Amino acid sequence: MSMFGQVYVKDNQYKIKGDFHHLTPNQPIRDADGWKLLGVTNPRDMTYIHSYGGEAVFFESLSQGKLMATRCDNPKCEAQGTIYQPFRIHCMDCLRKCTVIDMTDLAQKTAKIHTFMVCERSGAFSILDKPIKFINVEFDGVATILMGYLSLGDPKIGMSVVPIFKRTSPTYTILDLSWVPSGTPEKRLPEGFSY
Ligand SMILES: [Zn+2]
């Protein structure tokens, strides 16, 4: 049995297997001068069940090398035809469910760095290599801007970039999508990533 809990859905219900938490012994917290007891540590290790709902297709598609967006196709909506990336399940103007579209080709041809931020430090549990080059990516004909990270090279405003996908051992998270400067040879891509 896996050390971590596993989940699948059958008949629209979660079926869970394995351990979702582990009991780990606590430790006293003592004053270094005098060894007076001040408290205890309470180690916590739990597996959180995070549901993707209507966004699941976005993450599944990343693992297949596809970037999905959504578009409002409601003829009565002022925003009809507007494409959203990041993926919006519902149109914010008319609240109707958007249509899921494949914008991989559009991203390959038109993605540009709108702006960027280079972070020398990161928050807890970040597994990205530092410095992290966060980029805001814009696309022709898309109303919104996507936050991502540049895996190779130095970001510049207006620079053309192309998406890369972690198709080998995908994590099914947003980390499966990254960006590199246009024209980067495939053999230079980070491990597990391809165009
Ligand atoms: Zn709409």
Please, could you describe this protein's structure?
This protein is mainly beta and 195 residues long. The chain has a single domain (53-194), classed as Beta Barrel (OB fold (Dihydrolipoamide Acetyltransferase, E2P)), CATH 2.40.50.140. Helices cover 7% and strands 31% of the residues. It is built from two helices and 13 strands. It has helices spanning 56-62, 104-110, and strands spanning 6-10, 13-17, 27-30, 37-41, 68-71, 83-84, 99-102, 112-119, 132-138, 146-149, 161-166, 177-181, 193-194. It has a three-stranded antiparallel β-sheet. A three-stranded antiparallel β-sheet has the order 8-9-10, with no helix packed on it. It is globular and about 70 Å long. The protein starts with 5 loop residues before the first strand and ends with a strand. The model has no long low-confidence stretch (mean pLDDT 94). Bound molecules: zinc ion (ZN). Zinc ion binds at residues 72, 74, 77, 79, 91, 93-94, 96.
